[in-house]
Structure formats: C-alpha cells, structure tokens
C-alpha cells in the first residue's frame, strides 16, 4: 500500500534528527572547566586602629592675668598678638585711694616712731632712778610696759606701711614672663573686680594641639600615644607630638574629653588658634583582616566567597564589617581563622561552583 504524505514527512523529520544527533560535537557535552581564582587563608593578626581628629593650636602654658584689687581701669595697653617681656607694664588702675592710704600709713609710722622714742627715754630715766633708789618698782614697770607698747605700735605701723606700698603696686599689672597676648579684656574706664581677666598671655615655652575626643576613643587609645598633626589648610605643614594630658571630666555640653598633645618643634606656621588635624594609630588587638578585593555583596549585605578545599567549590557568606579602607577590610563576625576566602574573581562566581586555585596570598 502506498505511504501517505503525512507519514512520509514524519519519516523525513526523524531521519533528519538522527543525522543531526550523529553529527553533534562531543565537546558540547563536556562540563565547563573550573573557574580560576586566587585565595587567601584567614588569620587573626594585631590590627592598628586609625584615629583622626580636628582641633586647634594652643599655648602649652597660657595664663590669665588680673588685678589683685578692684577699681577703675586707667589704661589697658594689651593688644591681640602683641609680644610682651617680663616686667612690662600692661594695665593700670586709678590709684588715688591707694596713694592716700600710703601717705596715711607713712604718717602713722612717724607717729609711732615718736611715741617709741618718748617711751624709751622715759624707761631709761626710770631705770636710772630705780638704781639710785629715787623711784618705785611700780613706776619702773609702767615705763617698761609703755616702751613695749610703743614698740608694738611701731611694728604695726611698719606692717601697715608695707601693705599700703603693696596696694599701690597692685594698681599696676605687669607681665611675669615673656609671651604673646592671645586675649584682651576690659577697656580703659571700666570698673573691674579683683581677679577679673584683663588679658591672656601665652608663654613662649611650647605649643599644644588640643582635640575634643569621644569617650570610647579615649578608652581605646594607649597612654603617651604618638600623634601626627597637620594644618588643615596646608597638610604639608606637620609636627609630631604625644598625648600629655587628658581631661578628667567630660565637657557637660558635648560629652567629649579635651586631649592635649604636646608638640615637638612645631613649625612657625602652626600659629596659636590654627585649625589642625591629628592622626594616630592604636593597637586594637588580634582581628581578622582580609584584602578589600575579597569583599562582595549578597542579600544587600557585605559578603565573601569561602573556598572548600575538599570539594574545590565556593559558597557565599555574609559578614559584619568593622571598618575598611582601600586595601583591607576588618571583619567583626562571619569568618574564623583558618578559613579560605576568594580574593580575585569574586564577581564571576555562583553558589557551589567548582574553582581552580591559581595561588594564595597573605
């Protein structure tokens, strides 16, 4: 019986498929070669934690000068930035009252000296008369007491005269050491109180870089930490220093601690009040650090590819990153020492993929 056209077509199609199957390249059925990667073994090592602060330059020794007494300010010769020498007159108070008190003390001293001279002469007469039997013991003792009283009054008058001299001297304010004026106070004509700041002088014996540091960094930083300080407007101007003082109490507003770094041979460009940046590194103990190239992202979180040497496969794992820079990532959680992570080729991997290790790095 002759074949129908449909059967003829089916036979032709089957024959075509058989021929194609026979002609297929056997290479197409070969599984893909393992992808080459580079790896590193995770280790815990001592890590240095970098610190960066912004602060200011201050004098290592800055004093506030003030009058010991109150009064009306006659003159204030201090100007910001002026250099002063030891003993230089900086300000004066009106001294009429103190001058009058000095003259009164001088007069009281003269009177006391006269009374003492009179009492001494009377004592000497009574002493002579007593020896000759022409006076009584009671008169002699009275003369003795009068001389002692006159001597005491003279001593008191001398002390009052010295105090009056001091009061006159207190109307003049002089620098006790060479330095530079960093702050000025009231102007001439104002009434000032004892102890009120008239000016601040930075003595010429050192510079500090002062920073406001959070409490957690103060706890982490070791004592005598070395700091590199640079000007913010010219980072090429630098100086080295060490922490010499940490405030015992936090600032009540900012809750930070004032840290003073004593600078060694600071350049002249680091003027008082200049803004600086301090950089330091402190040992944070053993931590896991991996190359930055090992870090990828999975499930919207940082991740790494972990290599299984027994199966030559990789699997992705999310990690917690403590900090990172362009070269290294510090991992807080997610990896253990001894594990192997992929450092090159991470972008072309998938879960469970077989890989071929080209080399390992440290």
Q: Write down the CATH class of the largest domain.
A: Mainly Beta
Strand residue percentage: 35-45%
Q: Helical segment tally?
A: 4
The 3D shape can be described as: rod-shaped
Mean pLDDT: 84
As residue ranges, the low-confidence spans are 17-22
Helical fraction equals 25-40%
The largest sheet is: 6 strands, mixed
Under CATH, the topology of the largest domain can be stated as conserved putative lor/sdh protein from methanococcus maripaludis s2 fold
Instruction: Give the total of domains.
Output: 4
Query: What is the terminal separation in angstroms?
Result: 80 Å
Domain Multidrug resistance protein MdtA-like C-terminal permuted SH3: 290-347
Protein name: RND family efflux transporter, MFP subunit
GO cellular component, one term: efflux pump complex
Keywords: Coiled coil, Signal
Explain what the structure shows:
The chain is α+β, with helices and mostly antiparallel strands. It has four helices and 22 strands. Strand 17 (301-308) and strand 18 form a beta hairpin. Helix 2 packs antiparallel against helix 3 (137-169). The longest helix is centred in the N-terminal third of the chain and has 37 residues, at 96-132. The radius of gyration is 46 Å and the shape is rod-shaped. The two termini are 80 Å apart.
Topology at a glance:
Layout: H1 5-23, E1 35-41, E2 44-59, E3 62-66, E4 71-76, E5 83-84, E6 89-93, H2 96-132, H3 137-169, E7 172-174, E8 179-184, E9 191-192, E10 197-203, E11 207-213, H4 215-220, E12 226-231, E13 238-246, E14 257-264, E15 275-291, E16 296-298, E17 301-308, E18 313-318, E19 320-324, E20 328-333, E21 340-344, E22 355-361
Parallel strand pairs: 1-22
Antiparallel strand pairs: 1-21, 2-11, 2-15, 3-10, 4-6, 4-9, 5-8, 6-7, 8-10, 11-14, 12-13, 12-15, 13-14, 15-20, 16-17, 17-18, 17-21, 19-20
Helix pairs in contact: 2-3
């Amino acid at each position: 019986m002759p074949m129908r056209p449909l059967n003829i077509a089916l036979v032709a199609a089957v024959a075509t498929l058989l021929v194609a199957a026979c002609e297929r390249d056997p290479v197409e059925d070969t599984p893909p070669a393992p992808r080459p990667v580079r790896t590193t073994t995770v280790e815990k090592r001592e890590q240095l934690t970098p610190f960066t602060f912004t602060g200011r330059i201050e004098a290592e020794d800055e004093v506030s000068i003030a009058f010991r007494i109150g009064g009306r300010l006659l003159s204030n010769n201090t100007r910001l930035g002026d250099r002063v020498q030891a003993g230089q007159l900086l300000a004066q108070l009106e001294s009429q009252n103190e001058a009058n008190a000095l003259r009164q003390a001088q007069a009281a001293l003269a009177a006391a000296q006269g009374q003492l001279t009179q009492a001494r002469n009377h004592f000497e007469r009574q002493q002579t008369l007593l020896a000759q039997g022409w006076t009584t013991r009671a008169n002699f003792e009275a003369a003795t007491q009068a001389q002692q009283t006159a001597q005491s009054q003279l001593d008191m008058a001398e002390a009052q005269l010295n105090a009056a001299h001091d009061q006159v001297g207190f109307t003049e304010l002089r620098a006790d050491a060479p330095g530079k004026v960093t702050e000025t106070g009231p102007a001439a004509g104002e009434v000032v109180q004892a102890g009120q700041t008239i000016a601040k002088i930075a003595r010429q014996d050192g510079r500090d870089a002062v920073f406001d540091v959070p409490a957690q960094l103060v706890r982490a930083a070791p004592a005598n930490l070395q700091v590199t300080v640079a000007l913010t407007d010219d980072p090429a101007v630098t100086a080295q220093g060490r922490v010499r003082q940490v405030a015992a109490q936090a600032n009540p507003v900012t809750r930070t601690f004032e840290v003073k770094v004593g600078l060694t041979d600071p350049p002249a460009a680091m003027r008082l009040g200049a803004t600086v940046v301090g950089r330091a590194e402190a040992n944070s103990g053993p931590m896991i650090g991996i190359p930055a190239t090992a870090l990828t992202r999975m499930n919207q979180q940082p991740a790494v590819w972990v290599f299984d040497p027994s199966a030559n496969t990789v699997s992705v794992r999310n990690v917690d990153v403590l900090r990172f820079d362009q070269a290294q990532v510090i991992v807080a959680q997610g990896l253990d020492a001894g594990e192997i992570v992929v450092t090159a080729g991470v972008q072309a991997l998938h879960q469970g993929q077989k890989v071929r290790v080209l080399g390992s790095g440290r």
